[in-house]
Amino acid sequence: MEESRDGDWTLVARKPYFGLPTACPVCLPVYIYLKFARCPFNLEINSAYPDSDQIPYVEGGTYVAYNNEKGGVIQQLKQDGVVDLDSEFSSLPEWVSMKAMMSSWLADAITYELWLGSGENSAKQIYYSDLPWVIGKVLFVKQVYDVKQRFNISKQNAEKKEEEIYDRAKAAYRALSTMLGEQDFLFENRPTSLDADLVGHVLFTLKALPEDSVIRAALLEHGNLVRYAERHKNDFLTSGQSSASASNFQPPPSAAQASSSSKPKRKPKREKTEEEKSFQRKAKYFIGAQLVAVLLFLSLLGSSSKADLDEDDED
Fold first, then answer.
1. Are 17 and 208 contacting, i.e. CB atoms less than 8 angstroms apart?
2. What is the DSSP string of 168-205?
3. What residue range is the signal peptide (predicted)?
């Protein structure tokens, strides 16, 4: 477990790679959002559970916000009054539509490219390089299967689905490029979570995906998006400075504050952090448990493949 000490909040994310503070396409926007908000935080790296959908998460005092709850980490931080950069913009139709494109079209493109496109080596480096080769390979195959199921991809429609995913990504780039122009931020020259999503997406696409990536090539057609992301990489990821207006975050609640504050809060999540603590206590059992699950998966997959072959023989 590696840590970077910076403040009282802690962001738990996947490991750095490709010159990025975290190479996970879901973790990176959260990191940038906290930087935009000028929120001091520790960066803690967790590589033990590559298939956990709880990561990234943010914790401090009695509070924790997991990725797999209430729309993700950033949405929880906003709802719970920890830090909200979107309050003035989130009801604007343009903001809502752009946010939807980011969370669906561009997120789908990254997922497809990592697991089914040209990004296989990148996916292995991000998620599985710390595991034994056999375990990492089998988990990768399982994830590929899950992604195909998610997108409803079969041999018959694979080319059509790929074209749809790439076309939507290209349309999103055109819309975002037009809206951005040469501004520093997408709305009123101040950062929002949409900027964190976009900067994270662009940096991940440029740094983590190979040169023959379709969406990387499509992104490079929009020079203003590239310049925008590189500018913020220098401002926020390298120097750690922020041009945002006054800091807009609340300090982590202590146990006393949690019990005496009159402000409504979510249910105390410190108990739930026991889940995260049990993560660490049970780390030594992870590989064995995953191996059992993977072997079961492969046996079922093999049975399914055999059944398909029998059907073909009958035809």
1. yes
2. HHHHHHHHHHHHHTT-SSSBTTB--HHHHHHHHHHHHH
3. none
Q: Which of 183, 268, 261 has its CA nearest to residue 224?
A: 183
Quote the CA–CA distance of 295 and 303 in Å, as a whole number: 12
Q: Which of 47-56, 275-284, 300-309 has the highest mean pLDDT?
A: 47-56
Quick: pLDDT tens for 5-19. 445 899 999 999 999
Q: Give the end-to-end CA distance of the chain in Å, rounded to a whole number.
A: 55
Q: pLDDT for 171-204, tens place per residue? A: 999 999 999 999 999 998 899 999 999 999 999 9
Would you mind telling me the total number of residues written for the chain in this entry? 315
Dist CA 143 CA 196 (whole Å):
26
Six-digit token string for 34: 């906290």
Strand order in the sheet with 57-60: 2-4, 41-45, 9-13, 57-60, 63-66
* Angle between helix 193-208 and 93-101 (nearest 10): 30
